[in-house]
Amino acid sequence: MTTITKTKQNLETLGNKLDANGITTLEAGAMQTIHKTSGTMTATYQVMYSSGILPTDYISHKNKESTASAEQYAERKRVAAMICYTKAERASLAAKLPSDATDAQKASRKKLQDRATELLKTIRRGLVTQDKLANPQEAKANERKTAFESLQAKVAECIKLMQSDRPFPDDFDHDTAVATLIGYQNKFLK
Fold it and tell me: Which residues span the domain enclosing 49?
């Protein structure tokens, strides 16, 4: 039996204990394993990704990039809450915070509420990494531009606009403005 097959079986066994509906037992087990290891289980992310679980599955269904249905996302949140919270913490979250709660109590509750969301974000980041490893060309195309690259593009766009035949006000020194921008581009942006 290969390591991947053993890993899949172990994850499915863990997932069966979480009684997952709407997501696979493998995914639920992987979520628990990732939580226990503080998000450092590369093999678990590999198994999840190879099983067809996408990083966009871990974006809220309200986001247009999401590939998860409302039910799937709700189930992921439910499973994450089961993994992250003890029974006492779940009971504490189920109870309404008193209106006269102190700022410290509010901050403590917010930190507790964010724990499950952080697990989902951690899993998504791990799956994004797996996606980049599986599709290096696509990942490179989607990388954010640096500030310098953005500035180069904006200055080039300005020069192109100024050299077009669009009208400018009569008191605008068009030739000097174009020459200044081209000089700036040649000196600082090449």
Answer: 3-141
